[in-house]
Amino acid sequence: MRPDLAQSYGQHRLPRYTSYPTSPHFSASVRELDYQAWLKSLGGQQSASIYVHVPFCRSMCWYCGCHTSVTQRDEPIAIYAAGLRTEAYLIAEVVGQRQPISHIHFGGGTPTVMTPATFADLVGSLRYSFAVLPDAEIAVEIDPRMLSEPMAEMLGYCGVNRASLGVQSFDPVVQRAVNRLQSFEQTATSVDRLRRAGVGRINFDLLYGLPQQTVASCLDTVAKCLELHPDRFSAFGYAHIPAFKKHQRKIDEFTLPDSVERYLQFETIAEALVDAGYVRVGIDHFALPHESLARARREGRLKRNFQGYTDDCADALIGLGASAIGRMQQGFVANAVSAKDYLARISEDRLATAKGYLLTDEDRFRAEIIERIMCDMAVDLSETSRRHGLDPKLAVVDRSRIDSLIADGVVVIDDGRLSVAGGAEFLVRSVASAFDAYLPRCGATHSPAV
């Protein structure tokens, strides 16, 4: 336990490095025609995965940092789903053949806000437009408060085999402070419905650093979660950015824990999960030893994308929906953020491309360094530089940060290999940031490093 390091580095606001460069550096210089060319280069040969964004919820959780809106009506959701089906068809037309798909992830918002029939139509359209592989992982993010039995049955019928349930905290004091009242019984009922429907892989998503949250309440939440035997956990730190998410202004900043308390909350969660037999994967994921994520970590195949850590090794990620981000070998592409703008473009039989980023050779070099640090807590700088044909002396951007991390025992560099010291893994974003060439001139607000 190193609360002294949490005090020293915890207030730094840094990217989560789910991509490099990070999304604030995307620009309108990448256009629809560029994306079309990138899609054509897939040629149905490279493997790909799909992310589907559903930007609707029935109520707003005040901690939310996602692109979503609240509606009580089914009609706008059905109209939006029709747009998703059209976008999938348009992309398939550009590719020119049915692209093999190894992973599909439905995120939001709340994807299960769709009616069962609407969800089934959408999945059917994806299977029509793309060649979804027989062993593909199909995952859906779920609000347990909203999961009906018919919807759970439809998820199983449609081939969904992984569900990520938002838990955050079972402490009623915390729940009231973030406008999300969710009982343990509601969560247990959803897990039971999913398993009976054949959705066998269950993930729980937790948050720490919430208003009124304590170490004791974190431990109690984990204990309750363990009763339901999920396969994976994620434990993310709450990012308070009310300048970007106005609903977060409803949270009293004076009730938020400081960096040391946040550190203690996370380490309490991590220790409890490891003691229960889960393997720590990266900085904030935990999986049972037989799980594919734990195997990817052991075998050095762990990757990082916009959903966090993954064992998805597909060459490309196709983003569907408003604000969805895709990744091609050439670079990143992002759709229009608002559902209105997104649907306007799709209704004209156009791709919804709004911005993106064309990768340079140096970007690929730094992206690999940062991903390996984030995934493996280590990277061979000499070997990585050699493969990219670059001088390893140029890898570090922020020398003062690296020197400080070395002096504090966080980082060790030996014969060109950088390693994060045991017990200091929670500072891996600080380590990765030393290799980020764009961070010094980035004005975006990020989440705290701890």
Major sheet details: 9 strands, mixed
Query: Which CATH top level class of the largest domain fits?
Result: Alpha Beta
Question: Beta-strand level of the residues, as a percent range?
Answer: 15-25%
CATH-defined topology of the largest domain: TIM Barrel
Number of helical stretches of at least 4 residues = 15
What is the CATH architecture descriptor of the largest domain?
Alpha-Beta Barrel
Q: How many β strands by DSSP? A: 21
Please report the distance between the alpha carbons of the first and last residues.
13 Å
Alpha-beta content class:
alpha/beta
Residue windows where pLDDT falls under 50 for at least 5 positions: none
Domains, number: 2
Major sheet strand order: 10-11-9-8-7-6-5-2-14
- The CATH homologous superfamily name of the largest domain equals Aldolase class I
**Shape summary:** globular
Query: Can you give the helix content as a percent range?
Result: 25-40%
Mean pLDDT: 93
- What Rg, in angstroms, do the CA atoms define? 21 Å
